[in-house]
Task: structure prediction
Amino acid sequence: MSTKSEESYQWACEISLLTNMTMLLHSQKLMVRWGIGIGVFLAVVRLLLGNATFVEALLTIAIVILGFSALGLVGYVIYCCIRGGGFTSSYTLDKKNLRENYVPYKVQKLPNPKGLSGLIDILSSRPGLPGWGFVWATGKSTSTMPLKRVRTIKARRRLGHIKVSLGLDHVYVYVRPTDFDTILNYLRNHCPQARVSGCD
Result:
């Protein structure tokens, strides 16, 4: 981890979507919730119409949940293929904001022919940085979260990340074991409204 000053940190981590199951578990959780909601709705409709018994209604819920779970798994596999199996996530943390930038493996490995440098600079709107415009145009993503608005901080040391949430919006902050406590304590001290859990 590189430190710009005593009150600002910068670091980067490579995350493999094939070995790190955080995103898979999160997507499955969302799909199961959708499955429960739609399954219960269909079951109630069948019961009201007299087309099913109570047991058949429960079976309908189970089938819908399994269907959504399978759909989520297929979607995750497609997502892994699109992302090249993983991504590099870089972070900037200061007193006011947490900024995350991530680039898929696939985008990082794409060549940057010299003949396209000028066009790429124009696309990036950052002259002197050839290549980054191409990365931005093909998959680079950036997000910024104001620390004063953070509501929850969940530390998951064994998974190597800290989940920082602002309502429905959240960021998974991946940190090396040697820097985990430093980043967690910094977030705790600069997020006055946040509820912190899972620190052990």
About this structure: The chain is about 45% helix and 30% strand. Residues 54-82 form the longest helix (29 residues). Residues 107-139 have pLDDT under 50 and may be disordered. The longest strand covers residues 8-16.
